[in-house]
Amino acid sequence: MTAPDAAGLRRLTRELLAAHPPATTDRTDFLKARFDAGLAWVHYPAGLGGLDAPRSLQPVVDAELAAANAPDNDPRRIGIGLGMAAPTVLGYGTDEQKRRFLRPLWVGEEVWCQLFSEPGAGSDLAALSTRAVRDKEGWVVDGQKVWTSSAHLARWAILIARTDPDVPKHRGISYFICDMTDPGVEVRPLRQITGEAEFNEVFLTGVRIPDSHRLGPVGEGWKVAQTTLMNERVSIGGARIPREGGMIGPVAATWRERPELRTHDLHQRLLTLWVEAEVARLTGTRLRQQLVAGQPGPEGSGMKLAFARLNQEISGLEVELLGGGGLLYSDWTMRRPELVDFTGRDAGYRYLRSKGNSIEGGTSEVLLNIVAERVLGLPAEPRNDKDVAWKDLSR
Question: Catalytic residue at 232?
Answer without folding.
Answer: yes
